[in-house]
Amino acid sequence: MSTLNLDDFSDLIERPDGGVRRDAEERRERLAVPPGALGRLDELAEWLAAAQGRVPVRPVEHPRVVLFAADHGIASGGVSARAASTGHELVRSVLDGASPVAILAGRLGATVRIVDAGLDCDPALLPEDVVRHRVRRGSGRIDVEDALTVEETRAALELGIRIADEEADSGTDLVVLGDLSVGGTTVAATLVAALCGTDASVVTGRGGLPIDDLTWMRKCAAIRDALRRARPVLGDQVALLAAVGGADVAAITGFLLQCAVRRTPVILDGVVSAACGLVAQRAAFRAPDWWLAGQASGEPGQTKALDRMALNPVLDHGVIVGEGTGALLALPLVQAAAALAAELPPGAASHDV
Fold it and tell me: What is the pLDDT, as a whole number, of residue 236?
């Protein structure tokens, strides 16, 4: 696309192959293990087969964890248990192999990519391959000012599109999506409340590092004030992301849309990726068919967003750490589903046909 227009994605994105999904269902009925005996693993295998466009489904051989990083100006309003502008510490923890997502990725055969979309730190603190994509340093405080300019928002959306293309071109066959942000759940809750037409208190959660009651009240007030700024621009996704989003949120939105264009399946993590999915759904209603909700994070905003997109979380283990960890825990189940669908022998009845 020479000029970015999110409405174009509605024509560019098709649903996963329904005919292939029916073929996968019919093949499943002929296998040795009775239909239904594997529970949701059958559904996961059929979803993946439709995304791949083939039966039997291929194994997931090149999974990739993609984490978009940014600091949000709203964190300076005391809405997070983390200090404002400390997102680079989260990134450093992953790079050093000291975070849950880094440890699990190594065990589960997934590589990790971090994209700095808007961290508020000296770029010299992090490797060049992380910071080279940065759209801007930090973002505006969304309860009183825009997070980004419209030009920055478009640049962030285009960044996400480029990253999706790079992953598809490099052979990534399944993306585990997450974020490394401070203040991100406040931004996400604002977007969910705006798009679902709910009040701030309905979507305000405790965050990845749980906050106390006083901080929760400040967070709720910040979302309420940000909603007043969001509602006048609800009809324009770019304007909405500029007003109450952030560079990482816009980049994830572009990334999700382009992954659907490129037929790359994605496992969503928590409320941030769910909120971005909700924005992307507004641009292209078929896009959520390419995504899987990896886990229920316990954030009320995530629950509302997933319900709107008709996505049912694979796991509900109470994992609130964020950073893609919960979504990554769903990866082995998807891999197991693919392996069983492809390798289980046919049942005795099928030999008689």
Answer: 96
